[in-house]
Amino acid sequence: MEVIIDKTPEISSANAAAEIAKLLKAKPRAVLGCATGGTPLKLYADLISMCENGEISFAGVRTFNLDEYVGLGPDDPNSYRRFMDENFFDRIDIKKSNTRVPDGLAKDIPAFCSEYEKEIKDAGGIDLQILGLGSDGHIGFNEPSSSLCSRTRIKTLAPQTLLDNARFFGGNADAVPKYAITMGIGTIMDARSVVLLAFGEGKADAVAKMVEGGISAMLPASVLQMHENAKVFVDEAAASKLANIDYYKYVRSMRP
Ligand code: F6R
């Protein structure tokens, strides 16, 4: 796991965007795994700017989103499909038909989840998965105790996640859907590379456990210690509880 610490979320996001731009230049038909939430907004804004100025193109790119709330359709302002369209897809040159977000209205959820896994495989697998980090250590909506080998499925959201996401639902945790369809941890681990972003003091505990704690289903993101190519972009606040912070900075300064 490579830990890349920058002063502000803005600088971290720009560095993560550069990583994605590098992939798209090398592989214009790349498959991207996308995340929602507050964390990747600046990253998406940077990628939109790069697309607008012609530095990168998404014309050949396919995307698969991590998750969607069960019961929310694309027209719901709180659905992740709507979030992705408004904050990213509608503002880049991607073909909408090449973007996939789990179907929150799927009638047969297990069948939908198997099909989603198959679509990812048929697309050649995910080249780069963008991740945020839950304050409880979740990735996607894989809450603590999720199997580290899990595949796309329905999950019950943890009470902490309902509280964390209440801000998107007018501050009302009761309004947050209780279930989500999420890629599994095994699905995420299959991605050829992973870029995780985490910002702010509220993520500092989860970041420290993810990077320096034992690998445990109780902190799902810790499984990334087993990923061959995982980069963690954090600001100083999110990095503040890392015991080896000086070492990560030293390693970065020594990069050839
Ligand atoms: C979103 C997702 C979640 C978020 C996490 C952090 O698609 O899968 O794991 O990345 O809950 O959310 P924010 O960025 O809002 O703090």
Structural features, described:
The model has no long low-confidence stretch (mean pLDDT 97). The protein has a seven-stranded parallel beta sheet, sandwiched between helices. A three-stranded antiparallel beta sheet has the order 4-8-7. The longest helix is centred in the N-terminal third of the chain and has 18 residues, at 9-26. The protein is built from nine helices and ten strands. The protein has helices spanning 9-26, 41-52, 80-87, 109-122, 159-165, 185-189, 204-212, 236-239, 245-253, and strands spanning 2-6, 31-34, 62-65, 67-69, 99-100, 128-131, 153-156, 179-182, 193-198, 230-235. With 256 residues, it is α/β, with parallel strands linked by helices. Bound molecules: fructose -6-phosphate.
What is the structural class?
Answer: alpha/beta
Bound chemical compounds: fructose -6-phosphate
Uncertain regions spanning at least 5 consecutive residues: none
Mean pLDDT: 97
Number of helices: 9
Summarize the amount of helix as a percent range. 25-40%
Largest sheet: 7 strands, parallel
> What topology, given as strand order, has the largest sheet?
1-10-9-6-2-3-5
Distance between the termini: 17 Å
Q: In percent terms, what proportion of residues is strand?
A: 15-25%
Strand and helix layout:
Layout: E1 2-6, H1 9-26, E2 31-34, H2 41-52, E3 62-65, E4 67-69, H3 80-87, E5 99-100, H4 109-122, E6 128-131, E7 153-156, H5 159-165, E8 179-182, H6 185-189, E9 193-198, H7 204-212, E10 230-235, H8 236-239, H9 245-253
Parallel strand pairs: 1-10, 2-3, 2-6, 3-5, 6-9, 9-10
Antiparallel strand pairs: 4-8, 7-8
The chain binds fructose -6-phosphate.
